[in-house]
Amino acid sequence: MPKNFLTRGHSRSLTRTHKIAIAGVGTLGAAALAFSAAPGGGQTATAEAAAPAKVAYSSEPIKDAKAGVTDQLTSAGQTIAAIEAKQKAAAEAAAEKKAAAAKKAAARAAAEKKAAQERQAQAQETASRSATRLSVKQVSAKSYPDNLDGWIREALDIMEAKGIPGSYHGLHKNIMRESSGNPNAINNWDINAINGVPSKGLLQVIPPTFQAYHVPGTSWNIYDPVANITAAANYAADRYGTIDNVNSAY
Questions:
Q1: Burial of residue 35, with CB atoms counted within 10 A of its CB: 0-12 exposed, 13-18 middle, 19 or more buried
Q2: DSSP H helical segments within the chain, as ranges?
Q3: Model pLDDT for residues 44-86, shown as the tens digit of each residue
Q4: Distance of alpha carbon 150 from its chain centroid, rounded?
Q5: Which residues contact 48 (CB under 8 A, 6 or more apart)?
Q6: Residue 215 backbone phi and psi in degrees, to 5
Q7: Residue 64: exposed, middle, or buried by beta-carbon count in 10 A (0-12, 13-18, 19+)?
Q8: Is the distance from CB of 149 to CB of 222 less than 8 angstroms?
Q9: Which positions ≥6 away from 232 have C-beta within 8 Å?
Q10: Residue 222 and residue 200 in contact, taking contact as beta carbons nearer than 8 Å
């Protein structure tokens, strides 16, 4: 009976002491709790003390783990945000570069188009000026009457262009003496005729002389008035200095 009493009393004493120890230490470690239960010396008290100690200890590590996970999530979020910002900046830079290249290409195309238009306009202007000059030249082309006066004047213009000397008076006086102004005149009785090469035309030129002194740009017909005059004047310039110096048969 006393033994059982002591056992129960001891048990109650250990339990009460254990509770007091737990309430006293609060957040102390498992070693402090074990030390407070040691006077009883029983395993039951040690086992009972161990379980509450673990419960008391479990709160702090969980808080630290939660804080660590939160920090990691925050850090990961910041890293993702930084990557996204970097990607966005790279995309914007690429877009700006592409836009600048497109703008440059458009400006180059516009400049080439403008240059082509200017070349075309210049070509058209040149063609227009050429056409105008041709038109003026055609309009201003000299016309001569189809008579002795007109033949002499046309011949004089050709002679001037070719550098052949002679005057209206020199040509007119020799024409009147040689053919009386008849472009189809022919001499069939002089020595040239006897030799088979009669003199022909306004200035009575024999065929070999006409061919030798023919003026380029005129007809090869010996009876053509302008061709006959210019060939005879060319021959006279070579032999006498000018047709003006001829006052007789030549």
A1: middle
A2: 2-25, 30-37, 43-57, 59-140, 148-162, 168-179, 191-194, 207-212, 225-240
A3: 444 444 455 454 444 555 555 555 656 666 677 778 888 888 8
A4: 60
A5: 15, 18, 37
A6: -95, 125
A7: exposed
A8: no
A9: 174, 201, 202, 203, 204, 205, 209, 213, 243
A10: yes
Length of the chain: 250
* Identity of the amino acid at 213: Y
Per-residue pLDDT tens over the stretch 177-230: 999 999 999 999 999 999 999 999 999 999 999 999 999 999 999 999 999 999
d(CA 199, CA 177): 13
Q: Mutual orientation of helices 43-57 and 30-37 as an angle, nearest 10°?
A: 160
CB 47 within 8 A of CB 78: no
Helix (H, G, I), strand (E, B) or coil at 117: helix
pTM metric for this prediction: 0.46
Cross-strand partners of 200: 186, 205
What single-letter amino acid sits at 238? D
Beta bridge partners of 205: 200
Contacts of residue 227, defined as CB under 8 A and 6 or more positions apart, other chains included, come to 210, 214, 215, 218, 219, 220, 221
